[in-house]
Amino acid sequence: MDRHRETNENAGTDRYGEMNENARTDRRGETNKNAGTDRRREMNENAGTDGRGEMNENELTEACDDEYGGKTVTYLVGDGEAGRHLRDILRGPMGVSYSAMKSAKWNGRLYVNGEGAHTNRILQAGDLIRINWEADKPVYTLKPYDYPISVAYEDEDLLIVDKPAGLASQSSRNHPDDSLENALYARAGCPANFIYRPVNRLDKGTGGLMAVARNPYSQHLLQKQLHTDSFLRRYLAMTDGCPPAEEGTIRLPIGKEKGATIRRTVMPEGKPSVTRYRVLKTDQHRSLLLLQLETGRTHQIRVHLSALGCPVRGDFLYGKEDPAFPGCLALHSAVLRLVHPVKEEPLCLISLPSWAGDIEDSVLLMDFD
Predict the structure, then answer these.
(1) Top-level CATH class of 40-63+71-133?
(2) Residue 203 annotated as catalytic
(3) How much is the mean pLDDT over the chain?
(4) What pLDDT shows up at residue 2?
(5) Which residue among the candidates 157, 203, 240, 315 is catalytic per the annotation?
(6) Residue 281 CA to chain centroid, in angstroms?
(7) Alpha helices in the chain (DSSP H)
(8) Per-residue pLDDT averaged across 15-27, rounded?
(9) 140-365: which CATH topology?
């Protein structure tokens, strides 16, 4: 059984409110007590207003607006932001994409001090910006899949699961009823408004930590983090053979193999792809590697390790099948570090597969050269 733990100060609480005895605290992930309070908040539908229709800042709390997960997000303009255009605050500190801002503008979902506003409005200190984040609706019907899912972290905005190897991440023609999406739908009680919002996807044969947004606003902010230093993904892999060096960086472009449906290969005209690795254990026949993605190409780790001559164990596509790993790979999403999209607090979670043995957190979190 895989083991997961959280390494920030709030580590270890599972969905039943019980403490994970293996949870550890990452001192580098603790919140600075003297840090300033972020002015981006979510509005509680029961919060009071004053005579000008402005929201009392002390009554701003997190809340979902409707059954499909839409949010009302507010922001209090500070003294140093007076004189700026509304669009600059939306696109800057509020983190709203251009397309989302445009949609809100044309659909009348932008407000300043309770009144409809244009994006070119000049703001004053103390102005309260409000954007009604448009919710999406289910576009297809799911069947529930009664399959136990280990949850590493959960709140109303974010879900981080420890996906079992061999379970497809999303329902598809090949897996219409037996995917992680179907299992989470069943876990949620099969609500009519269920929408699956995966942030980082894992191949069917890969297990480990995977983030799922709980509403469109959180999904938007997490996707902006995905390929930045704020969203760190590290993997453990057992390989057949050993890389040429104990630590290195693989910079080989990856593209779709001609005539193939899913198989990728290293090719000059492929997309730039960068994987960093470190050998943790090795013998003459196999190695345990720690890997970090700098880019996110399809099958990137599998293609890069195969190109080095040390494919992932059990990889039927780029190496050879292994009876010790039936229907899955010796590849595991072991470290997921990100900034919570709403609370803006650092989260760092660790999951260890049974085949990797015991590894100290410090080994998994040590910087690459």
Answers:
(1) alpha beta
(2) yes
(3) 82
(4) 57
(5) 203
(6) 28
(7) 86-91, 98-106, 180-187, 216-225, 300-307, 361-365
(8) 34
(9) Pseudouridine synthase (3.30.2350)
